[in-house]
Specification:
Blueprint lengths: L2 H20 L13 H17 L6 E4 L3 E4 H24 L7 H11 L3 H7 L14 H8 L10
Antiparallel strand pairs: 1-2
Length: about 150
């Protein structure tokens, strides 16, 4: 992933997902190609306002995932996606790629039982093989289709 692609993905899919499940519309910033920092800031501010405001009580109903409180849906789908793409951004920009091990373990434990569903959705690439004794971050990244060992040679 290029950094602009990660920002573009995050600021584009979630507003559409949110609107389809709640009817709520998030403010949109400039194009991530034009100004990825401003695009992200406008988006992040809009998500935070959503969670802090009365809209947080809006029912979240989506045909693919069912019904749940809106803050739970944001955490389950959006926050986890931001967390996983943190690695992509770090890799693309030459920053520290370490992720929180407990969050990696929690995500992996939650996704492993629904692997077939995830792969069939087209949202995740094929699993990348990693060594059997790999740490939990490496296992998570391989699971979601990243090659965490590429570039470490």
């Amino acid at each position: 992933w290029r950094a602009r692609d990660v920002v573009g993905h995050l600021v584009e899919w979630f507003p559409d997902f949110l609107k389809s499940a709640t009817g709520l519309v998030l403010d949109r910033g400039p194009s991530p190609e034009e100004d990825p920092v401003a695009a992200w800031q406008v988006h992040a501010d809009a998500v935070q306002r959503l969670l802090d405001g009365p809209e947080a009580a809006t029912p979240f109903r989506h045909p693919m995932v069912g019904e749940m409180p809106l803050p739970d849906a944001v955490d389950r789908f959006y926050t986890s996606d931001v967390f996983m793409h943190t690695w992509d951004l770090a890799r693309a920009t030459g920053q520290d790629e370490r992720l929180d091990p407990q969050t990696c373990a929690d995500l992996l434990a939650g996704m492993a039982p629904i692997e077939e569903l995830m792969r069939s959705s087209g949202q995740y690439g094929p699993r990348v093989p990693v060594p059997g004794d790999a740490d939990v971050q490496t296992r998570l990244l391989g699971f979601i289709g990243r090659d965490p060992l590429r570039g470490r040679e």
